[in-house]
Design goal:
The structure is a single chain. Helix content is 3%, strand content 39%. With 740 residues, it is mainly beta. The protein folds into five domains: 104 residues, no CATH class; 119 residues, Sandwich (Jelly Rolls), CATH 2.60.120; 115 residues, Jelly Rolls; 114 residues, Sandwich (Jelly Rolls); 134 residues, Jelly Rolls (Sandwich). A hairpin with a 4-residue loop joins β14 and β15.
Amino acid sequence: MTSSHTDARGRTNAAAGRMRWWWLLLALAAGACGDHSVRSPFALDAGEAGAGGAPEESDGGLNIGDDAGDPTLGGPCTDDGQCVDALPCTSDRCDLALLRCRHTPDDSVCDDGVYCNGPEVCDPKLGCHAGEPVSCTDLDSCTIDTCVEADHSCTHDPRDGDGDGDPVWNCAGGGDCDDTDPTVSSKVKEICGNAKDDNCDGKVDESPCISPAYDTCAKPLVINASGTSSLSLVATAFDYPTKCAPAGQHFRDVVVALSVPKGGLQDVDVVAQSDAAQVSLATAGVCGDAADTTCAPSVVGATGSLSRLHLYGLAPGNYPLYVAADAETNVELTVKFSPATSEPANETCGTAAPLEPGAKVVVPLASAAQDLSSVCYGASGELVYEFTLNTPQDVRLFANPLDSYGVPELSLRSAHCSAPRDELTCRIGTPASLFARALPAGKYFVAVGATGPSDLDLQLQLSDPTAAPPDEGCATPPSLALGRTLELTLAEHADAVNLGCLPGAPDSTHGLTLSAPSDVLLLGASSNNDTVAVSLGGPSCLSSTLLACGLSSSTPISSSDVFTSAARAHAYGVPAGAYRAVAESAAGNPISLTAFARNAQPPVLVAFADDCSAPFEIPATGGHFRGNTANANADYDAGCDVGNQAKGGAPDQLLHLRLRRKSRVILDMIGSDYATMLSVRTGTACPGDELPLACAAGYIPDRSFLDLDLEPGDYYVQVDGYAGNSGAWSLDVYVTPDAP
C-alpha cells in the first residue's frame, strides 16, 4: 500500500537517486570531452523551461545562474567549446575545477585609441562599453578646462569668452572689460572717434589714440607694381565678410586697390602671409559688394597662415582686394604683375593635359579646385595630366615645389581615373617621387596637388620594366625570424602592398609564421627624418586583413637609438598561422624591421609592488602588465627625469625579471595614460643601479620604450612618472633569448 507521507529517510533516498542521475550526466558529458559541438549537459530544451520561459532550478538544488558574485563566471560546462560567448573582448574557457564557464575580460581589445573619452571597459556579460570621460575640471570658474587628445593632458586656460587673448577683468591676470567684444581689451590701443573704451582704462577716445589705415573702401592702399607691403590690422574693423572670412568670427580687414596700369591685359598674383591663425584674400566687382566676391581660403604656411589669389587677364583699372585675418597683427602682402595667361583648363579627368616623358611642366595650383580623392591626402585642389604607354614600362613621376607654399602631392590613376578605386598609388613629399613598376600598356592619369597653393615642377620618366625584388609584393615573401632585425633598402621598391597603414609608401614584405596563438610586436625604424610604418596582415595583404598598424613617432624610441623615426605595432591574441609583416617609408629611405612574439595572454594586474619588499615577478617569457602609480610612494629616482624633482621623483612601482640566458628584452609602455618613465636596474641587491642607456622618458604618453641586450642576471624594472606624473600604466615585455 502506497502512503502519501514521505519520511526523512525517503527524502534522503530520493536525494541520493537524484545525485546518481547527476553524476551519470557528468560521466556522459566527460565521454564527449574535446568535442566542441557537444551540447551542454546542463542546458534545458525550450520545452523544459519553467514559467516565463526561464529554466527551472535543477533537482539537485544547484542554481546555475548564481555566479557567487564573480561576474566572469557563466553557465555550466565540461569543455571549452561550450563557453564561447561571441564577445570579442573576453577569453573563454571551461573552469574544470568549478565546471563553469569563465569569461576573462581584456579591456585592451575595447580601446578605441581616444584618450579624452576615457578608457573603454570590457564587461564579461555585455562586452565593450564606454568608460568615464577624462575629467579636467579644476573647480575654478576663471579657467576653461580642456582635455588635449594630442598629448593626453589637461589644459586650464584663463576664461576668455571673446577669444581676444585677454581674460575677463574679474579673474586673476585678466583685464578685459567687455568679454563679449573681441575688439575691446586691455591689450589693444585706444581708437580715435569710435565712442568706445577700447583699451579698458575707463576712458573713451582719450589721447593718445590711433586711427587705422586702409580700413574701408573710402581710403584703400593703392598697389600698381610688383612688390611686398606690410599691412597692419591694429584697430581695424571687420567691414567686408566673405565666404573665406565669414561674419560672426574674430576677423579684421583692410582694403587694397589693385591698379592695373594702361596697356595690355595683366595677371595679378597676390599672396598674404601672417602669424594669425587665419588669413584670407577676396576680391569683388565693386568695392563694398559682398555678394559678388571671389576669395582664397586660409591654409597653414611655413610660419603661420597663408592665402593666395591669382587673378587672370585683368584689364587696366582698379580692383578691390579685401585682406582679412583673425588677429590684430601684420599681414605681409606680396603682389606680382605679369603678362596675361589663361587659367588652367585641366581641372578634371575629362580635361586632362598631355604629359610627355622628359618634359618639365609647371603646375600652377593657386586656383585649382578639388575634383578627385586620394588615400594619401585629404582636401586638396589638383590639376590632371595624362600619358599613354605602348608597352609595359617602369614609371617615375617627380614633383618639385617652386615656392614654399605647400608640399607636393601625386596620384597615379588608371584609365577610368575619377573614382577612388581608380587610384593605383600616390605620394606626398618635398619633392614628391612616385615609382610604379612594370605598368602594362595603356592610358594613365596623374593628379597633381599640394598642401598649399604652390607652383610645382612636374616631370615624367619612363624606362624598361624591371623585375620586383623578393620582398616586394605579398605572394612569396622571404621569412622573418622572430627577434632578428632586418635592414631594408627601399630606394628601388614600389608601393606593392596596401594594408592601409601608410598608403602610397614604398614597402617591403616578409612572411611571419606563428606556431601558437600569440601576442605580436613589430618594430620599424629609419635613420632619416621620415614617416615610417609597420603593419601586420593576412597572407593576401588585403586591407580587410589588417591586424595592427604603427606609424612613426617624432622622437627616438629609446635613449640609445640614433633613429629619428620609429614605429611599433601591437597585435594581441593572434591565432596560429601565416601572416605578412610590412615595413614602409614615405620617402623610400632605408628602414629596419623586427618582429617579436610570445604566447597570447591577457593583461596581468600589478597590485602593490611599491618597493623592494615585494617587487612583481615578470615571467622569463615576458607578458602584458597593467598597474597604477597614483597611490604608490616615490621611492626611486631615474636618470632621465626632468631636473629639480623632489627626492624619489614621482610615485613608482617595481617589477623583477630574472634572465637565465643572454636575451634581447623589449619594454614598451604604449597605452599608458600619463607621461611615464622606464628605468632598468641591476645589482646584487634590490633595487640595484640604473644600467647605462636604460632609462626612457615618455615626454608625452606612450613614448617610454627600451630595446636592451641583457646578460643573464636579475633586473629590476622601475615604472615611474616623468616630471612627477602618475596614473594608470601599461607595460608590454618581450624576451627573445639568444640562440645557444
